Each structure stands twice: as C-alpha cells, then as structure tokens.
Model the fold of this input.
Amino acid sequence: MIPRVSRIIKDIKSMKIQGAREVAKAGIETLEISARASRAKTKKDFFSDLQKTTRVLVKSRLTEPALRNVISHILLKVQQYEGHYELGRIRNYTLSVCREHLRELEEALLKIAEIGSEIIQEGDVVLTHCHSHTVVEILRKAKKQGKEFEVIVTETRPLYQGLLTAKDLLKAKIPVIYCIDSAAGHLMRQATKVLTGTDGIILPNGSVINKIGTFPIALLAKQFGKPFYVAGGTIKFTEKIELEERGPEEVVNPKKLPGAKIVNPAFGVTPAEYIEGIITEEGIFKPDMIGKATGKWSFPL
Done:
C-alpha cells in the first residue's frame, strides 16, 4: 500500500483523524492519492485499484456513513464515466470528482452553520457532547452574529474529545463550562438547549448515531424539558450501520482488572422521539420528516 495512504488509514483507525466530516475528507484525499499513484495500464485495473483502497477505508471506521457515502459516490461517478473515455482522461476525471466533493463538503458545512446559528439565542446556555466540527462552526457563526451565550462541554471519556471542542470554542472567545460526563444531569438545569453532532442519521425514522453518552444526555434533556438538536449533513444518511467497539485499553489497563470484561462501545443510537430537530444543509427537520431532505449521498457500497 502507498505509504501516505497507510498513514492516513492508521490515523483514521487511531482517531487521530476524528469527526465524521474530517474522516470523509481524509477518505477523499486517500482516493485522490491512489488515483495519482496508480500504475494501472488498463481502465479495469485502475478502477480495481480504487476499489481496493475503498475496501480498506471502509474497514478503518465502521461507524462512519459519511466516509462510506462519499467514496461510494465518487466510485459510482468514475464507473459511469469509465466506459466512455481512455485511461488518462479517467484518471483526471477522478481527481476532479474528488476536488468537487471536497468543495461540496465545505459548502454544506457553511450552509449548516448558517441554518444552525438560527437556534442559538442571546443568553443561551448550550450543552454539547464530544467534538463535532459542525457544532463548532454553528456556534462560531452565532458568535460572529453578535450573540452572547455559554457552552457546557462534557469531557467525553475515554478519549476526552470534549477538550477539542472546549479549545475550539475558547479560541472563538465563546465562554465554556467544562465538566465530567457524569455531571451532565447536574448542569442540565442551567442549560437552555442541547446541540450535538452526529455520525449517522438513520433513514427513514430520524434516529441518530453519535458518540457513546449522547443518548443519556438526550434522556436528561427530555426530563428537564430542554430541546435536543442534532447537526449533520445529508452525507450522513444511512439505512443501516455497524456500531464500533474499541479496545478496552482506552478505558483501563486490563491488567488492573484481571477477570473483568471491559467494554468500550464508541457509539450509540439516540431514538428519534428524543430529538427536537436535525439541522442539515437543506434546513432543520423533525426526525419523522428527515426523509424529505434529498440527500444525494446515500449509495450502498
């Protein structure tokens, strides 16, 4: 495998590259590198090289529909183009499709930030969990609009992705209240709303997949009457998903608990009935209406 591709895939697996959108971008970059580096002499072999890279990418993070959808979409477009032109032109087309999809990801993020900023009001106290580039962009946009608000950020064990969120928000001069995960119930009383990202939006019912711990926060929000919003592009639409289980050593050294079964589920499902709205680049949808968003990305791999 190409060394640079191997490094990217290793970084995805280790979560050095994290967040659904960033993983999708890394996947596009990997396909672009593979297309440039391919030594294939025929169109069939060139497409086979792309497929091999795709299979490794998909296995690198099972719970990332955005990654699966975007590379599936690229492969489909290349396959449709493949039958009509010679190899050199197909290679160039593949590179242009990759660049186009990177641009579309950025445009979608800007649209979601603009739409999502509408739910942030002056004096809000927003609770969030884990690290979502989309959520951060929404909050940055609201700050640029002159709104003053605070954000409660959970640490998000065991990898402490909440630290990334807190640092991003502080750079944007947004006040942060940082807390341990188990303090969410204690602090929910002062929150006015909850806003999290999502790794997958399940069609057709509008349930969402996100970092483990999101569902208990949604339960707390429901209990305290606080609206729970989720932000994520239509690239995250999926009809099925495998929830990733990560190694026990992220939780505790197994040698310290001999005989114990240590579980480390990385993601969980938050049912639609706990969600006030899903913020996409096409608008804010109630979960039972999410299928109305067109979502061009969903192609089975």
The chain has two domains: 3-111, 115-292. The radius of gyration is 20 Å. The first strand starts at residue 125 and ends at 128. The chain has a mean pLDDT of 92.
